[in-house]
Amino acid sequence: MNISFLMVAGLVASGVGRAPDGAALYKSNCARCHGAAGEGVMGPSLQTTTLGQQQITDMLSKAVAAKQPPHGTAAAGWTAEQIAAVATYVGTLKK
């Protein structure tokens, strides 16, 4: 068997190269405050937010001084791809 094939197969099996799942990231990190459907709990509703995808991306990737934790600091340990996936998913929650 070709060594290149084995390396690619190993990367695919490990999830490397796979797009982040915005819905799963949202549910495990954001839903407790913003609600499972973005309806708002102790955090504001994301269903009615006027923020666009780029603004949401900026909020997650940069500190926003006027916001309550966790948005007063950048999302620790998240890649740009994960942040973009969550921002895209939040856009699907809007009504």
What's the arrangement of secondary structure elements?
Elements: H1 3-14, H2 22-29, H3 31-34, H4 53-61, H5 80-93
CATH homology group = Cytochrome c-like domain
Head-to-tail CA distance between termini: 52 Å
Order of helices and strands: HHHHH
CATH architecture title: Orthogonal Bundle
Describe this structure in words.
This protein is mainly α and 95 residues long. The chain has one domain: Orthogonal Bundle (Cytochrome Bc1 Complex, Chain D, domain 2), CATH 1.10.760. Helices cover 49% and strands 0% of the residues. The protein has helices at 3-14, 22-29, 31-34, 53-61, 80-93. The chain is globular and about 35 Å long. It starts with a helix and ends with a helix.
Give a nutshell description of this structure:
The protein is mainly α.
Observed structural traits:
95 residues; 49% helix; mainly alpha; Cytochrome Bc1 Complex, Chain D, domain 2; disordered N terminus
